[in-house]
Amino acid sequence: MRIATGLAGGVAPVRAADSAAAEAAEAAPAAAAPQAALQSAVLQPAMAALRAMPEIDHDKVAALRDALAKGELPFDPAKLAGLIQRFHGSEP
């Protein structure tokens, strides 16, 4: 806690956190509206894409993971690396 003195010589306790919170609360409404609009505009396409994606079949994922671990499913790391590069535009 810090002690503030006024012109009249009076002493009033002032908490730094309280004054900082008050300043932030005053500035928040002005800054929140553009921030919320930006987030909404940025997130809307992502949320639409997420809703369009199919549900994950967790049983199938578990079966594939087990088959891969047992060596029943072939895995070619070079092919996977090439597909990742092609997907991300490193290769035409």
Task: Name its key features.
mainly alpha, 3 helices, 2 domains, 92 residues, 66% helix
Mean pLDDT: 74
Q: What is the CA-atom radius of gyration, in angstroms?
A: 29 Å
Helix proportion of residues, in percent? 55-70%
Going across the major beta sheet, what is the strand order?
Answer: 1-2
Number of domains: 2
End-to-end separation in angstroms reads 63 Å
Main β-sheet description: 2 strands, antiparallel
Total strands: the figure is 2
List low-confidence stretches: none
Task: Write down the secondary-structure element order.
Answer: EEHHH
Kindly report the oligomeric state of this protein: single chain
* Beta-strand content: 5-15%
Total helical elements:
3
Structural class: mainly alpha
Shape field:
elongated
Task: Tell me what the structure shows.
With 92 residues, the protein is mostly helical. It has 2 domains: 12-53, no CATH class; 54-92. The chain has helices at residues 16-52, 58-70, 77-87; strands at 2-5, 11-14. It has a two-stranded antiparallel sheet with strand order 1-2. The model has no long low-confidence stretch (mean pLDDT 74).
